[in-house]
Amino acid sequence: MADKRDAPTAAVVVDPDGLVSGWSEGGRLLLGWTAEDTVGRPVTDLLVDPPPPGFPEGYGAGPDATGFMSLRHRDGSTVDAVVAAHPLHGPDGRALGHVVTVQRWGRRPVIADRAFEQSPFALGVYDPELRFLWINASSGRVIAHSEEQVLGKKYREVLPEFDRSLFPERDDKPYTDALAEVARTGEPTRLITVFRPRGSDYANAWATSIWPVLDAEGRVRAVANWGFDMSAEYWARQRLLILNRAGGGIGRTLDVIGTAEELARTPVPGFVDLVSVDLFDEVLRGEEPPSVSAFTPGETIRLSRAARHSAKEDTDRAPGHTTPVTHTPGSVAARCMATGRSTVELAAEPGQGGEWAFGPGLAADPAHWPPGNPVIDESIAAEGLTGRITVPLRARGALLGVVAFSRLDRPEAFTADDLILAEELTAKAAVAIDNARRYSRERTTALTLQRSLLPQGLPNQEAVEVASRYLPGGTGAEVGGDWFDVIPLSGARVALVVGDVVGHGLHASAGMGRLRTAVRTLADVDLPPDELLTHLDDLVLHLAGDLQPTDPLQPTGESGATCLYTVYDPVSRRFTLASAGHPLPLVISPDGTSIPVAVQPGPPLGIGGLPFEATELELPEGSLLALYTDGLLASRERDVDEGVAELQRVLNHSATSLEALCDTVIDAMLPERRTDDAALLLARTHALARRHVADWDVEPDHAQVPRARKFAVDQVDAWGLEEAAFVTELVVSELVTNAIRYGEPPIRLRLIRDTSLICEVSDASNTAPHLRRARAFDEGGRGLLLVAQLTQGWGTRHTTNGKTIWCAQALPGPPQSEPH
Q1: Rounded-to-integer distance, Cα 795 and Cα 781, Å
Q2: Per residue in 535-552, pLDDT tens?
Q3: Cα separations (Å) of 424 from 206, 342, 367, 595?
Q4: Where are the alpha helices (DSSP H) in 268-370?
Q5: 3-class SS string, 568-626
Q6: Angle between helical axes of 256-265 and 231-249 (0-180°, round to 10)
Q7: Of the spans 2-11, 42-51, 326-335, which averages the highest pLDDT?
Q8: Residue percentage of the chain with pLDDT more than 70
Q9: Quick check: helix, strand or coil at residue 240?
Q10: How far apart are CA 195 and CA 173, in angstroms?
Q11: Which ranges of 680-742 would DSSP assign to H, the alpha helix?
């Protein structure tokens, strides 16, 4: 039995006397009465309540009257219904009665039909095979078809474009497939569909719902849908997504060209098809960009194309590659840079009456465009463009360049909201590019300062063969405070130094320069390594106090600096070292075995109050010393101990020279993208041959002075240095005489032939001699002045047993190294 909710409309014919003269099958289904029951009876017998006045002549207003009544069902129940009376007339105009239609109350009234038909939402009903059953006027406008044109036709026949996604790269489901799935499963669904309505150049976004229409038994009899245009909200959300992507994708590195490339890639292809970024050469070099006022009218502006990205062609270029570009006077780019205002160019022609047909949405209203925009420029079509937005690249009041956002084959014209998006992207990138430019300038300055403070050439000495490398951090890292030095000392010895100032940038480079100068000054005093670090620690404490910043966030100088100071003596082959928080050196014997360095590193410089420990090793000739900073070991793939083991393994690599070994170490130890600078100093020890060293114990008696002079002259002659005999005799006489007169025994004279001829006199006294100006009648005070004038250099070094006075004479050539 059919459900009463599905009963058809009842049709009743009433004659002029108010008697029923005709009864439809719908009346039986609706009220239970048959034609035999009702024909000939007054129609008012069917009413529960008294009929309204004039019924059925014209119940309600108008010739077709409609009203609500309660009718009697044959089973005694009451049926609430919508009753409509329609007058009948003959050919001569005579009234023949009425046709009364009855619909159960609760079924859709006529006004509801009109409501659905006039709804601003697109509504449609389709059978399970997706044939059109009904659409409203809004749906007809969307699909550009009337209801009469589509009724009975399949959806795919009328709208084949809905069989594919407008954006297949997003894996959107075709809309027709969504309809078919609801018809098959009976499960409703909701989705956002982006498509171009027929006759439109703009992609619209529609929020749609699809649901099944079920009969009384729950079977799918039809599929219905509704949708509304949410293009403004959808495209606003897409712009926000692009800005959000720009927030995480632009400015990730402190690199000018890298940031320009990030800007070029971010809006492609979601917003535009081609982006180019042109920058001034000064910006690429990290310098201040030229002032806009510096450009004269009619001057061609020369820039460099730092980035270009297209969705239609392969624009991959070598990293860091730039191309010169020029913008002629009067060009859009030149005007934008001169005025500081953006320009939108559209290639489409004006519509009827000379008015431009803007895209949909409030943002496309001409009232929302900035003055002078958009510009209708058909000439850009020759470049294959349908539209272009040109935006000056400005940050902190400085003009850095210009950016062009172009669409190639899209029919959509730019809107005012698109201009806002382009300007927002450019503004974000401009700040990032300016930050990268400023960083590049500071990094270049710090690197220049640091390189100027590092040794430009290693000094000439024979104690060790040395090679070094210094590599700053990658372009994404600031310059650090790593440094090294090789300092010749008295007695043919040499100091090997390596250090690291914690931090980066100019402060670290300046701190490194101060420490290197301080170490050289203290080394000239010839202090032992542990004493030198103690004095250096005090100096750092004083400097930190003098350089204490007023801003608590400002760096505080050399706090946290580390230093390793070592001394090698080629005569005794003694290697002495002390560390202030710095990694200990690696020592490799000539046979490749590692020589342990048993010393505990002291605290970093600037702590104060803690001692430094020195240790001494005797090394075989040809030992390899490796001094380095922690930047050489730092890596995400290994810890420090693993780094030390790897460095030791690489140092055993057979290399023809120390220079080649340096390259091998750098290639093996440093990753391609390093975040810290690194210093490496390699040294191979030499031993001075015994026949190049002569010493003699001197009795504390002035009668020994002539014997000392003779010993020195004979030794110099034996070395074939007769030309140095006269000066040697004089300085030995002065130094030995002073030691006997002012010093304490034991007294010892030593001559060393190295790159220079060195004369040393040692005694047990701690008093140090000094130069003074002798008066005209003084009998003494001229000895050291004479020594200073006749030799290349002189000095005093203190030992645990006293002091040593030394002087050195230049020789024409170094001696040949021989086995110790």
Answers
A1: 16
A2: 999 888 887 665 555 555
A3: 27, 12, 20, 62
A4: 281-284, 332-339
A5: EECCCCEEEEEEECCCCCEEECCCCCECCCCCCCECCCCCCCCCCCEEEEECCCCCEEE
A6: 160
A7: 326-335
A8: 81
A9: helix
A10: 12
A11: 704-718, 725-742
| Tokens 């700053």, residue located | 472
Measured between its terminal Cα atoms, the distance across the chain in Å is 122
pLDDT for 103: 82
Q: What length is written for the chain?
A: 820
Task: Measure the CA–CA gap between 765 and 747, rounded to whole angstroms.
Answer: 10
Per-residue pLDDT band at 453 (split at 50, 70, 90): low
C-alpha count within 13 angstroms, C-beta hemisphere, residue 37? 13
Q: How far apart are CA 82 and CA 110, in angstroms?
A: 10
Collect all residues with Cβ–Cβ distance below 8 Å to 244 and sequence separation of at least 6: none
Phi, psi of 76 (to 5 degrees): 95, -5
pLDDT in tens, 69-89: 888 899 888 888 878 888 888
**What's the CA gap between 288 and 280, in Å, rounded?**
10
CB 493 within 8 A of CB 570: yes
Going by C-alpha positions, the residue among 598, 343, 333, 621 that lies closest to residue 463 is 621
Quick one: 39 exposed, middle or buried, by C-beta within 10 A (0-12, 13-18, 19+)?
middle
471 beta partners: 678
> In this predicted model, which residue has the larger pLDDT, 103 or 121?
121
As given in the structure block, the two tokens for residue 333 are 């780019």
Angle (CA) 658-664-666 rounded to 5° is: 105
Tokens of 743: 């010093």
Whole-number Cα distances in Å, 539 to 489, 544, 790: 22, 9, 35
- Extract the tokens encoding 498: 């390596």
Q: Which of 531, 640, 534 is nearest to 584 (CA)?
A: 640
Higher pLDDT, 166 or 535: 535
Question: Could you say which DSSP state residue 193 is in?
Answer: E
Give the β-pairing of 95-104 and 274-279.
unpaired
Q: Of 811, 818, 820, which is closest to residue 720 (Cα–Cα)? A: 811
Paired tokens of 430: 């401009």
Given a cut of 80, is residue 349 above it in pLDDT? Answer: no
Query: Rounded to 5 degrees, what are φ and ψ at 63?
Result: -65, -30
Q: In whole angstroms, what is the distance from residue 665 CA to residue 106 CA?
A: 90
- Tell me if the bond preceding 50 is cis, omega within 30° of 0: no
pLDDT given for residue 449 in this prediction? 64
* Residue whose token pair is 């203290």: 522
For the record, the structure tokens of 252 come out as 């990730």
Among 104, 196, 197, CA closest to 143: 197
6-18 residue pLDDT tens: 456 899 999 988 8
Of the candidates 764, 793, 794, the one whose C-alpha atom is nearest the C-alpha of residue 697 is 764
* CA pair distance 372, 660, nearest whole angstrom: 65
**Residue 775: pLDDT band with limits 50, 70, 90:** very low
